[in-house]
């Protein structure tokens, strides 16, 4: 009897879906389209056994091309709710491979709010499976740390931090209390310098620091470590910094000190309405 009741309820839900949703998710009014996507996101999250499959996910994927920003935004927030739950990741693999390129392109959306949420969604995708995003996908997000719009840049900074800076070698557990050149932050500071130089935007260190300030404050304030990398002799087997790398580290260090002292974003970075990167 329980099974019969469950089947009856599912048949009713399918009837509502085909009779209402399938017609209204393409409604002429953007607000109705947005409501449809928001609701199907809730259905897939609450009753994943019935709704979290490609027969339903495809509607969210298609709607990511909607001409209205508010509708595209609902697609991304609905997907975030799904990717956040790691237990659901296996059911999202086909959708991810099919619509990943569209999500990556949305990081350059003309609407700031949409671009920010697209980056945040990719950060969740990254945490669910690092193999999904190619090096090119990641680089498309990396360069947004230099965006003139701070929310976009901060979201990209968190993505960059999760990808390049948050993984720790198990061997570091024994040296967590070491300081200066021998601290776990030493390699992370070098990684930051290498990234800065490879990005070829050397006059914009202040933008890079501001983008990562919220998620990597402890690293960016480890001036003792930065000083020791500049002043102390390299450890056995350690490659010394080149003159160019030392100059970059000094520039980054000065920007972190200025950020800590002034407590505001660099000149030229704001929260306007349209996306633009430098």
Explain what you see:
This protein is mainly α and 278 residues long. It has helices spanning 2-24, 30-46, 48-51, 54-63, 69-83, 93-105, 112-128, 135-142, 150-165, 185-198, 205-212, 217-220, 223-231, 243-262. It has two domains: 6-132, Leucine-rich Repeat Variant (Alpha Horseshoe); 177-269, no CATH class. The protein is elongated and about 75 Å long. InterPro entries: ARM-type_fold, Cohesin_Scc3/SA, HEAT_SCC3-SA, SCD.
Largest sheet: none
Number of strands: 0
List low-pLDDT spans: none
CATH architecture title of the largest domain: Alpha Horseshoe
Helix content, binned percent: 55-70%
List the helices and strands and how they pair.
Layout: H1 2-24, H2 30-46, H3 48-51, H4 54-63, H5 69-83, H6 93-105, H7 112-128, H8 135-142, H9 150-165, H10 185-198, H11 205-212, H12 217-220, H13 223-231, H14 243-262
Helix pairs in contact: 2-4, 2-5, 4-6, 5-7, 7-9, 9-11, 10-14, 11-14, 13-14
Q: In short, what is this structure?
A:
This protein has 278 residues and is an all-alpha fold.
Task: Describe this protein with a few key phrases.
single chain, 278 residues, mainly alpha, Leucine-rich Repeat Variant, 64% helix
């Amino acid at each position: 009897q329980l099974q019969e009741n469950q089947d009856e309820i599912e048949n009713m839900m399918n009837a509502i879906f085909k009779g209402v949703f399938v017609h209204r998710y393409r409604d002429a009014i953007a607000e109705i389209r947005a409501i449809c996507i928001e609701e199907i996101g809730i259905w897939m999250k609450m009753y994943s056994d019935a709704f979290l499959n490609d027969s339903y996910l495809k509607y969210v994927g298609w709607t990511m091309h909607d001409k209205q920003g508010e509708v595209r935004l609902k697609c991304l927030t609905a997907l975030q709710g799904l990717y956040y739950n790691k237990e659901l990741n296996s059911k999202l693999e086909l959708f991810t491979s099919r619509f990943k390129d569209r999500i990556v392109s949305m990081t350059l959306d003309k609407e700031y709010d949409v671009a920010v949420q697209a980056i945040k969604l990719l950060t969740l995708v990254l945490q669910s499976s690092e193999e999904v995003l190619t090096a090119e996908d990641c680089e498309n997000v990396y360069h947004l740390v230099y965006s003139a719009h701070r929310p976009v840049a901060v979201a990209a900074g968190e993505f960059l931090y999760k990808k390049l800076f948050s993984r720790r070698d198990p061997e570091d557990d024994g040296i967590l209390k070491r300081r200066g050149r021998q601290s776990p932050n030493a390699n992370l500071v070098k990684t930051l310098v290498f990234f800065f130089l490879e990005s070829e935007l050397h006059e914009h260190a202040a933008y890079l620091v501001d983008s990562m300030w919220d998620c990597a404050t402890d690293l960016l304030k480890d001036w003792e470590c930065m000083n020791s990398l500049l002043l102390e002799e390299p450890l056995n087997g350690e490659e010394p910094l080149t003159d160019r790398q030392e100059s970059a580290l000094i520039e980054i260090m000065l920007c972190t000190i200025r950020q800590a002292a002034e407590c505001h974003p660099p000149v030229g970075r704001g929260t306007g309405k349209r996306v633009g990167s430098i």
